[in-house]
Structure formats: structure tokens, C-alpha cells
Design goal:
Blueprint lengths: L7 H12 L15 H28 L3 E3 L2 E3 L2 H12 L18 H14 L1 H20 L2 H13 L2 E6 L15 E5 L2 E12 L8 E9 L10 E7 L1 E3 L6 E3 L2 E6 L10 E6 L5 E5 L6 H37 L18 H33 L3 H37 L10 H8 L9 H14 L4 H11 L2 H7 L4 H24 L6 H33 L4 H20 L3 H10 L3 H4 L3 H4 L2
Helix pairs in contact: 1-2, 1-8, 2-4, 4-5, 4-7, 4-8, 5-6, 5-7, 7-8, 7-9, 7-10, 8-9, 8-15, 8-16, 9-10, 9-11, 9-15, 11-15, 12-14, 13-14, 14-15, 14-16, 14-17, 15-16, 15-17
Length: about 600
């Protein structure tokens, strides 16, 4: 069975095109930000991932982390890999030099993250959550707190975690019970947190937990939540030795997948209370945590892309090797690659991978603009666009990625269901991506509620207008992009009508937003994926005559897969549209009793 190889040609193609827009968006010129630098970073990341992380992926699935005497222990192979990861400076790519970072943009760090995820998703969760924690501390922590802890996160000396969920408080964070009482220049935190990814381990000497909790007399509900940094270990009174910070690892969750990533139940302050440091101001914790959550949501969307890419490579390799049946045009058994239905599944996987990847990299670029453009209006406009793209990328890419991984198993037939092939692990690992960091339903309600209804549709209409502006260049491109042009025209009309319907009907039909939100998000994701394939299709077409060899084959293949996406994926838009326009009546028609009949 073929193993993973990073799709460097495609990554470089997308990055080059997006990087060309840096100056126009007011981003500062970066010395050496060029194809050679990006190519070197991606190539080295790919080399290390393929040599070290890929072989570890099945090992982590079998040799799972162990909880002994209240501590989680990781296999020696994974510990060695993490030490190499830190020594290579991979933790620090996207952070400023003042904190020990390499100051590379998200447009580089997101593709590198995709490589880690494809190679070994369980491993990658640890440094990527640490990066999200460092972002929250950088953006919201006091100068004193940053001086104490930020470099430790950026360097990989410490890892970071996100602690939101409690046994009684899942998606409804207003039900949080963890408390933090002030004591001098810190707080004493008490409470239990569940589903904490990489919540305990022995990869590093310390772990910095970012924990949501309530302070005394805080307002009820989500308005009374604060964010705290709680180290696993703190300095003893002698200021020389590190001691436990009254944090107990209660258990490691037994999960469907991601066995190599310890998901822990943590209990804070069972004895004297865990020493905790307030991040920012009291009662602003959820606002601060969204910095971490939104970065993680983009990251989870990339999980879907990464797993789908690896599943595609496995499926393609198997389809080339497996001889079974007589494909059309063959007089004797031939590779299943030539059976039309297998071809259909492979084309679905590859075209969806290209659409998802293009949209995620677009979001990475928009994130760079929102953070670093010299023009305030441009930054604000980019921030609005990123807020719309984030739930779509998280939910659409994870849902579609899971579907494509399932196709990868299907190509293998019965062998795909056997653990030894490695495809089953991909499917098990993919299943969580539509759930953690906010389920698909939660992302859809965010999109339809905050980003459509609360905004009066302005941000989404601006996005649809930008897609519409592509029609003239597509018309000029002629036949090679005519199918995607027609699909975009039809999709834009459906999206606009669906948005208008929701905006005009949601007040009189309270169930409408919840009933149609997932269909609206999937409609938008499918449309935006087609939009990005069209954008890069124009680039591919413009370069086609000036290339030769494999580069020319790649560009021509992109155009072919863009047509396939237009003809086989974008018709889904009309199905989503029909469900939205049907409203909520059939969703709510049956009584609770009838649901059980």
C-alpha cells in the first residue's frame, strides 16, 4: 500500500498565486518571502514528516499512551520524534521574532501543518494546540504573563491545552462550574474538565493549561467566564524545584480513533487549589478563548483535508496495483484504476481535496491580511471575511473530508476494512473532526446566526459579489472553464435566494435557522470550493502554454478536475437549496412521541 507524500507541487502552486497579492493587500514586504524560501520550508517539512511521522502513525494507534500513578506516559518513539520536532524549530514558524519565532505567515504555516496532519494526525494535535494557546496568550495576556510563559510555548519547551468542556457543560458553556478565587497576584482554581486533548503527557517537563472558570460574584451565563493560565507544575517555595500544581489526571478517554493522542479528564484543585494566572480581564474569557478556538477551527478543517489527501494517495496506489475484473476496453483482467466507478471515486477525492485546500489556504492568506495589513480598513474587511470562512472551513472540510476518506476505504473493498491496510485508522481518526472544536451544527448556527442574520447579510453578500465578479474572466477563458462558470452562476443564484429567504423568514419561523443551517453551510462550502477552483483554474490556464513536462500535465489535470467538480459536486448546491426553501415544517412536524414510533 502506498504511503503519504506531501503534495508539494500543488501547495507551491497555491501559495505562489496567493503570495503575489501580498502587496495589493497592504502586507509588509518580508525579506526573502519567495518561492525558494517557501519551497525549502515545505520540502524539509515533507522530508521529516515522511521519514519520521509517517512510520509512527500506526505505532501510535497500537502503543497508546498509558496512565500510571496519575501521570500519562507516551511511547519512547513518539517522545523522540517530539524532541526532534522542537529541535527543528517547527513550533515557532508563525510567531514574531521577539518571542523566539520565525515570523512566517499563516500562508506558510497552514500548509506545513497540513503535512504534519497527513503524516500523523494524533502527533500533530499537540504542537498545533500549543500554537493556538500561544496565539491567545500573545493577543490577550499581560506583558508580565507573556514574559513568563510565551517563549516557552513558542519554542516547544512547554505544550498548551484548551480546557472548556465539563461533564455538565458541553456546547453550553454557560453551565460551567469551575471556579477561581483571587489570592494575591494569582488565583486558586478548582473544577473538573473533560475531553482535554494532550491534557497530560511526558513529552515536556511542563504543560500550560488554558482554562475557562468563574470568579466570585461573576455574572451568570457566558458573561461571567474568565480565562486562566494554569501550569501543570509550578516553582516550590524555595524557587528552585518544580512541584505539582494540584492537577490530577483522572483518566484517559477510550476513543474510536486518535488513539495516539491522550484525551484526558483533569481535576483541578482537589487539595489546596491550583495556582492560576488571569489572562486579560475578568469576565472576558470566552472572547479570549475564541482566539484559540477559531485558530483551532481552521486547523480542524485542515484535518479533513489532510486525512482525505492521505486516503486518496492510498486509494490511488491500491487501484493501480489491484487487478480485478475486465475494465471497459480490456479483454482480460486489469487494474481497478480503469473501472469507471473506481475512477469516479478517485476523481471525487482528488477534486474535493483541491477545492478544500484552495479554500483553506485562501483563509490563511486572509488571516495574514487581517493581522498585518498596513491599512486599517483592509484589516477590518479581512477580519469579517475570515469570520465567515472559519465555520465553513471547519465544518465543510471536516464533513467532506470524512466522506472522502470513506471513499478511500471503498476503493480498497474488503481490504479497506482490515486494520493492516491502514485505511480503517484514517476513517476512525476522521470521525472526530466534525465534532470537536464545535460540531457541524454549531458551526452552521454561527454562520447563519452571527454571520448572516445578525449582520443583515452584508458580509455574505459581499462574498457572493466577489464570486460574481469572476464571471467576466471566466467568460474570456472559454471552453476549458465553461462548466465551472455555469455551475457558479447557478450556485450564486441559489445561495442568494437561500440567504434572502432566511433573512426574511427567520423572525416568523423561529425553528428555521436551526432547521436549515447545516444545509446553508454545506451549500456555501460547495460554492466556495468551486469559486476557488475557478480562481486557480484561471491561473492554471494562463500558465499552461508556457510549461512542459509534469508541470504542464499538472496544470491540465487541474482544469480537468475543475470540470469534474463543477459537474459532479456542484449539483449538490441545488439539493441543499431545495431543502432550505422547504423551511422547517417537516423537521418539526412529528411529536416527541411520534419520533419513537
Amino acid at each position: 500500500m502506498s504511503e503519504y507524500r506531501a503534495p508539494l507541487r500543488e501547495m507551491q502552486f497555491l501559495i505562489d498565486e496567493l503570495a503575489a497579492k501580498r502587496v495589493a493587500e497592504g502586507l509588509p514586504a518580508r525579506d526573502g518571502f519567495n518561492a525558494d524560501l517557501v519551497g525549502s520550508v515545505l520540502s524539509e517539512a515533507a522530508r521529516w514528516a515522511e521519514e519520521v511521522l509517517v512510520p509512527l502513525y500506526p505505532v501510535g494507534d497500537r502503543e497508546v499512551p498509558e496512565l500510571r500513578d496519575g501521570h500519562v506516559y507516551i511511547s519512547q518513539e513518539v517522545k523522540s520524534a517530539f524532541s526532534q520536532f522542537v529541535a527543528g524549530g517547527w513550533c515557532s514558524l508563525a510567531f514574531e521574532e521577539e518571542w523566539g519565532g520565525q515570523d512566517l505567515p499563516e500562508l506558510v504555516s497552514v500548509p506545513v501543518g497540513e503535512i504534519w496532519k497527513s503524516a500523523n494526525l494524533a502527533f500533530s494535535n499537540c504542537p498545533l494546540l500549543t500554537s493556538a494557546a500561544a496565539s491567545a496568550l500573545r493577543d490577550h495576556g499581560s506583558e508580565e504573563l507573556k514574559a513568563r510563559f510565551l517563549r516557552q510555548l513558542v519554542s516547544g519547551e512547554c505544550t498548551g491545552t484548551m480546557n472548556l468542556t465539563e461533564p455538565q457543560a458541553g456546547s453550553d458553556l454557560s453551565a460551567l462550574r469551575a471556579t477561581a478565587e483571587p489570592e494575591g497576584d494569582y488565583y486558586r482554581l478548582r473544577g473538573k474538565k473533560i475531553f482535554i486533548t494532550w491534557g497530560d503527557h511526558d513529552l515536556t517537563d511542563n504543560i500550560l493549561h488554558f482554562v475557562l472558570a468563574r470568579t466570585p460574584e461573576s455574572p451568570p451565563g457566558i458573561k461571567g467566564i474568565s480565562l486562566f493560565l494554569v501550569p501543570k507544575r509550578i516553582l516550590a517555595e524555595d524557587s528552585k524545584t518544580m512541584v505539582s500544581n494540584d492537577i490530577t489526571t483522572v483518566s484517559i478517554e477510550r476513543k474510536l480513533g486518535l488513539h495516539g493522542s491522550p484525551t484526558c479528564v483533569l481535576s483541578y484543585g482537589d487539595s489546596c487549589g491550583s495556582v492560576a494566572y488571569l489572562v486579560g480581564e475578568e469576565n472576558q474569557g470566552l472572547v479570549y478563548m475564541f482566539t484559540m478556538m477559531n485558530k483551532s477551527r481552521i486547523s480542524v478543517g485542515v484535518d479533513g483535508i489532510a486525512l482525505s489527501e492521505r486516503a486518496y494517495q492510498k486509494a490511488l496506489g491500491y487501484a493501480r496495483e489491484r487487478v480485478q475484473g475486465n475494465p471497459p476496453g480490456y479483454t482480460e483482467p486489469g487494474p481497478i484504476l480503469h473501472h469507471p466507478d473506481v475512477r469516479r471515486m478517485l476523481m471525487l477525492m482528488r477534486s474535493c481535496n483541491e477545492a478544500m485546500r484552495a479554500l483553506a489556504y485562501r483563509a490563511a492568506f486572509v488571516s495574514d491580511v487581517a493581522r498585518a495589513s498596513r491599512d486599517q480598513e483592509t484589516r477590518e474587511r479581512a477580519a469579517v471575511r475570515l469570520s465567515i470562512l472559519t465555520p465553513i472551513i471547519k465544518a465543510w472540510c471536516s464533513e467532506l473530508g470524512q466522506e472522502m476518506v470513506s471513499f478511500g476505504l471503498q476503493v480498497h473493498g474488503g481490504l479497506g476494512y482490515i486494520e493492516e491496510t491502514g485505511v480503517a485508522q484514517l476513517l476512525r481518526d476522521a470521525r472526530i473532526t466534525t465534532i470537536y472544536e464545535g460540531t457541524t451544527g454549531i458551526q452552521a448556527r454561527d454562520l447563519i446566526g452571527r454571520k448572516l442574520i445578525d449582520d443583515g447579510g452584508q458580509g455574505i453578500r459581499a462574498l457572493l459579489d466577489e464570486i460574481q465578479a469572476l464571471d467576466r474572466p471566466l467568460e474570456g477563458a472559454g471552453e476549458p472553464l465553461s462548466q465551472i462558470r455555469g455551475a457558479l452562476t447557478q450556485g450564486l443564484a441559489a445561495a442568494g435566494e437561500a440567504a434572502d429567504y432566511i433573512l426574511t423568514r427567520h423572525k416568523e419561523d423561529e425553528a428555521l435557522p436551526g432547521a436549515v443551517s447545516v444545509d446553508f453551510l454545506m451549500l456555501m462550502g460547495t460554492l466556495l470550493g468551486g469559486w476557488q477552483l475557478a480562481v486557480f483554474g484561471l491561473t492554471a490556464l494562463s500558465r499552461l502554454d508556457g510549461t512542459s513536462g509534469e508541470d504542464q500535465l499538472y496544470l491540465a489535470a487541474r482544469l480537468g478536475r475543475t470540470r469534474f467538480y463543477a459537474e459532479h459536486l456542484m449539483p449538490r448546491i441545488m439539493a441543499y437549496h431545495a431543502s432550505i426553501m422547504a423551511g422547517s415544517a417537516s423537521v418539526t412536524a412529528l411529536s416527541d412521541a411520534q419520533l419513537a414510533l
